[in-house]
Amino acid sequence: MTRQGLNEAARHFSRAKSAFDRSEWESANSQVRSALESLFNAVAKLRLNSNKTGGAARQELQDAGLLRTREAKLVQEFIAVAGGSGSHAGVSNADESLGRFLAGIGIAYIGLALIPELVRVEDVLVGQLTAPAGTRLPTDKEVYTTCPTCGIRQTLAQAKISRDGKNTVYTCMHGCQTIVVVGEPEDAPWEGRGYRLGDHVIRNAQDMYLPIIGTGKEVLIPASKGALMKQRPSSS
Ligand SMILES: [Zn+2]
Q: Is the pLDDT of residue 134 over 50?
């Protein structure tokens, strides 16, 4: 979940687990419910660019055909049940609460399955660059760059990968900062914003090297000045 940028949902699940460990059943149930609400809100945002939340977000996922009718019903009913008797003090007991916790994890997987895999640098290269016969393009295990903060050279496979909205973010293996972002092209490209390859833009904070395996040569993607800016610099 954290890898997919679902930090809020992950937090609620971890609180549900601690509440469960403390035998606070009502609280555990309500955290499971919050985790699922947050997860499906994130799925609607990501897949449909929707800002709707709660039942409306899930309805939209169903209308778009992402959740099949019965699946949508299952999710809806479960969330209602999870929030239901949990609020009557003393009603929830350990077994019931554990059952809901486990079922909640099952429902979470339905949501997670709707989230596309992260696009890695190696995925973007395929079909956009051609390696000479007998050689091949590098994978994330071979592409390398340097962290501007700690100065450690690392391959992209060593960096930590996660999602930020539609972007894939590589964070320094020591957690210092973002070192590479794979994103979608902006409507209007801006100076120093990155390297366009097909449907994606690669933005690297420091020079990045792509060894073409079997040739002894490397392709350099120079650092993009605006790599990590959140907003376009004003033109004035
Ligand atoms: Zn670092």
A: yes
Q: Average pLDDT in the 155-175 region?
A: 94
Rounded Cα distance between 35 and 148, Å, is: 35
How long is the chain? 236
Whole-number pLDDT of residue 184? 84
Distance (angstroms) between ligand 1 centre and the Cα of 5 equals 20
Domain 7-112 indexed as CATH 1.20.120: yes
- The average pLDDT across 173-178 equals 96
C-alpha 181 – ligand 1 centre gap (Å): 15
| Residues less than 5 Å from ion ligand 1, measured at CB | 147, 149-150, 172, 174, 176
Note whether ipTM > 0.85 here: yes
pLDDT at 185 over 90: no
Domain boundary assignment for the chain: 7-112, 121-221
Residue 20 · residue 28 · CB < 8 Å: yes
**Which of the four pLDDT bands, split at 50, 70 and 90, describes residue 236?**
very low
- How far is the C-alpha of 94 from the C-alpha of 176, rounded, in Å? 41
173 Cα–ligand 1 center, Å: 6
Map residue 90 onto helix, strand or coil. Answer: coil
CA 124 to ligand 1 centroid distance, Å: 24
Distances (CA, A) of 57 to 69, 106, 114, 163: 14, 19, 13, 20
Dihedral, CA of residue 50, residue 53, residue 54 and residue 59, to nearest 10? -30
Separation of alpha carbons 186 and 190, rounded Å: 8
